[in-house]
Amino acid sequence: MTPEDVEARPLTPDRWDDFAMLFGPQGACYGCWCTYFRVSAKERQAMNADARRIFMHDRVAQGPPPGLLGYRGGQAIAWVQVGPRADLPQWNSPKTVSRPLAPEDATDPAVWAVSCFYMPRAARGKGMSHRMLAQAIAFARDNAARVLEACPIDRTKQSKSIGLYVGSTRVFEAAGFAEVARRKDGRPLMRLELR
């Protein structure tokens, strides 16, 4: 598999079944269903995987698309969560390393974030994150984003680690992102100006 043969599409309600198949019956990443930055830790812990799936299903149904699915041969094989910071309340929490530089960035519809990636184990370590990030940048730009931010991780013990759900710093650097803050060792807040 090469990253060049992956085509990204917005996660719209008609693609929910593809998303669910990609995430599997448990919802990927220990049943997260990509709710980690969408609900508080207390709420998330009170939810089981099925409740998280329903939450995300409702979010997709509500629109706009919360991210992109990567397809190869008609099958969804990758995911990137990308959208306005305002859609990710936990990403904006003052207690997190991803908190905004300026308070108004948390509600500015033109300040977007790339917050999560997911690929099944067999697709990891093959450059898929680079391809999905390129598609996320194009999607943000096409939807009037002025700034795109990320809070990746510098390194993990294994190149295919699930801890890379936030993305690798190297992937963002290769796409032109620059570090704008570092609130914790190994976790830079990075930014790409889109216009």
Automatic annotation (TrEMBL):
Record SUPFAM superfamilies: Acyl-CoA N-acyltransferases (Nat)
GO molecular function per UniProt: acyltransferase activity, transferring groups other than amino-acyl groups
Keywords: Transferase
InterPro entries: Acyl_CoA_acyltransferase, GNAT_dom
Keyword Transferase: yes
Residue stretches making up the N-acetyltransferase domain: 6-195
Pfam families xref list: Acetyltransf_1 (PF00583)
Domain of life: Bacteria
Sections of the chain in a coiled coil: none
Protein name according to UniProt: Putative GNAT family acetyltransferase
Organism annotation: Rhizobium giardinii
